[in-house]
Design brief:
CATH superfamily: Histidine kinase-like ATPase, C-terminal domain
Strand content: 15-25%
Number of helices: 3
Order of helices and strands: EEHHEEHEE
Largest sheet: 6 strands, antiparallel
Distance between the termini: 34 Å
CATH topology: Heat Shock Protein 90
Shape: globular
Structural class: alpha+beta
CATH class: Alpha Beta
Helix content: 25-40%
CATH architecture: 2-Layer Sandwich
Strand order of the largest sheet: 1-2-3-4-6-5
């Protein structure tokens, strides 16, 4: 997998950091996170959401952030526990203003290929935050199997 791996396993969760540079490395990181979420008892819909958002974040960082420059790195770190999954993705690109990305659901933008990844991440995750110049992204998904009360607004209803 990535060039730098640090793993901490404890009774409460899993923590790891990977540094990758190529699209071919994305599936291994994504599936590692998915496997751990399944083991932590996340519902299938939560696992799907994290899988989709993680793939989008990593591919965006490689393609748009680092411009597919294999000399540049994407750092992905995560902390997963039975209550929530936190995934951070940072690239070495110049960054961008996420608010300047056009709404991909607007009629004029439907045929355009830009902005769908961010919209998907925002739609499926509980929190999507861009830090710094826009080259660091933090994704958060709460385990709906552990959450008490009604689901958050816009979230799918429980299985």
């Amino acid at each position: 997998m990535g060039r730098f791996d640090v793993t901490e396993h404890n009774l409460q969760g899993k923590q790891r950091c990977h540094i990758i540079s190529e699209k071919s490395e994305v599936p291994a990181v994504r599936e590692e996170i998915v496997s751990l979420l399944v083991g932590l008892g996340y519902r299938q819909r939560d696992v799907f959401a994290v899988r989709l958002a993680t793939e989008e974040a990593l591919l965006n960082a490689i393609e748009h952030g680092n411009q597919c420059d294999k000399k540049k790195r994407v750092t992905v770190s995560y902390l997963l526990d039975p209550q929530k999954a936190e995934i951070s993705v940072s690239d070495e690109g110049a960054g961008f203003d996420p608010d300047s990305v056009p709404d991909c659901t607007a009629t004029d933008n439907l045929p355009k290929p830009r902005g769908r990844g961010i919209a998907l991440m925002r739609g499926f995750m509980d929190s999507v935050e861009f830090g710094g110049k826009g080259n660091t992204l933090r994704l958060v998904k709460y385990n709906s199997a552990r959450r008490e009360g009604p689901p958050t607004e816009g979230a799918p209803t429980p299985e």
